[in-house]
Amino acid sequence: MNDFKLHDVDSAPEESKPLLKKSLDDFGMIPNLHAVMAEAPGTLEGYQKLHELVLNSSLNNDEKTVVWQTINVENQCHYCVPAHSGIARSMKVSEDIDNALRDKTPLPDDKLEALRNFTLGVVRDRGNVSEKELNAFYEAGYGHRQVLEVILTVSQKVMSNYINHIAKTPVDEPFKSFEWKAS
Fold first, then answer.
1. Helix or strand holding residue 108 (H, E)
2. Count: domains in the chain
3. Is position 43 within any domain?
4. Which of these, 68, 67, 153, lies nearest to 114 by C-alpha position?
5. Which of 89, 94, 121, 27 is nearest to 19 (CA)?
6. Helix (H, G, I), strand (E, B) or coil at 134
7. Using CA atoms in the order 3, 72, 124, 148, what is the torsion angle rounded to 10 degrees?
């Protein structure tokens, strides 16, 4: 039974109200994911902080999108895949990159493909990546910082993907044109 409430600034617990106001300021709306998370103020605050940290990482917009969407698709998140397609467009990421991630087809750039492969290794093997996987990542031009930033992003996506699975979070209106189903 899905009975998770989509909170707004009026219905949210007191500690979540300023967090939802921040979401409204940042996005011009309260994303349904944030509306669900507002039930537990620490969850919403943690997610917002992780998101901010990922945005301020050394990864460029294409790379952030590769990591986010690789995790979203791997975890089959009905909410995050379309949301990050919309976010990718706003970040001026090529539709070719986003479509390749959504469709699990080759990326147009070897370095981005190495990033996708490394991210998949981290997710699938729960961080137990092989020396060969690490070396391929380093040979593509990434370093220790990016290893740690991929793990940071995995942490963010575990929160959102798992919550969306359990809460069956409805896709926000601005992202409905990007709806996605796992193949």
1. none
2. 1
3. no
4. 67
5. 27
6. helix
7. -110
pLDDT for 2 beyond 90: no
**pTM (predicted TM-score):** 0.95
Q: Can you tell me which residue has the tokens 């999108």?
A: 65
CB 23 within 8 A of CB 41: no
Structure tokens at 172: 């926000």
CATH number at residue 164: 1.20.1290.10
pLDDT at position 1 is 59
Element (H, E) at 179: none
SS3 74: helix
3-state DSSP assignment of residue 78: coil
Taking only the tens place, the pLDDT of each residue in 10-19 is 999 999 999 9
